[in-house]
């Protein structure tokens, strides 16, 4: 079994599979072909081969320009930024501005404990009525 690839990008000429399903730069399926044919297409059209779905049978590759690869990488980075990481917790605490001193100390200790546990803490202070 080939190693799984971490980043999205051109695989160059290192294709561990013999038969591939190839999609052209416009998104149209070119069908299944031998890796040598895919490399020939790649060279003829001055494109790069990118692995889309490794666990499909046969694996799906797409011919892309350098610009298309760059745009896709930016899109994926943006999507990753939008989703908070798994295992990251946000704790929220809210209290009034008229909070008693001992209550404030208790909440401060609680916040310190959460920060030690690497939680993200959001504090909201409401104005007293």
Strand and helix map with partners:
Blueprint: E1 19-23, E2 29-34, H1 35-44, E3 48-53, E4 60-64, H2 66-82, E5 90-96, H3 101-116, E6 120-126
Parallel strand pairs: 1-4, 5-6
Antiparallel strand pairs: 1-2, 3-4
Mean pLDDT: 83
What is the helix tally? 3
Query: How much of the sequence is in beta strands?
Result: 25-35%
Instruction: Please give the share of residues in helix.
Output: 25-40%
Estimated radius of gyration: 26 Å
**Shape verdict:** rod-shaped
Short description:
With 129 residues, the protein is of the alpha/beta class. Helix content is 33%, strand content 28%.
Word description of this protein:
33% of the residues lie in helices and 28% in strands. It is built from 3 helices and 6 strands; from the N terminus they run E-E-H-E-E-H-E-H-E. Strands 2-1-4-3 form a 4-stranded mixed β-sheet. 9% of the residues are buried. The model is unreliable at 1-6 (pLDDT under 50).
């Amino acid at each position: 079994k080939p190693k799984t690839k971490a980043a999205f990008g051109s695989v160059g000429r290192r294709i561990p599979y013999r038969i591939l399903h190839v999609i052209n730069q416009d998104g149209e399926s070119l069908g299944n072909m031998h890796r040598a044919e895919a490399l020939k297409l790649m060279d003829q059209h001055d494109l790069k081969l990118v692995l889309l779905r490794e666990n499909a049978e046969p694996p799906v590759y797409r011919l892309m320009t350098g610009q298309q690869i760059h745009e896709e990488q930016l899109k994926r980075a943006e999507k990753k930024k939008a989703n908070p990481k798994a295992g990251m917790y946000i704790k929220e605490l809210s209290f009034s501005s008229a909070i008693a001193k001992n209550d404030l100390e208790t909440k401060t200790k609680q916040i310190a404990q959460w920060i030690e546990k690497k939680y993200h803490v959001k504090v909201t202070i409401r104005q007293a009525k």
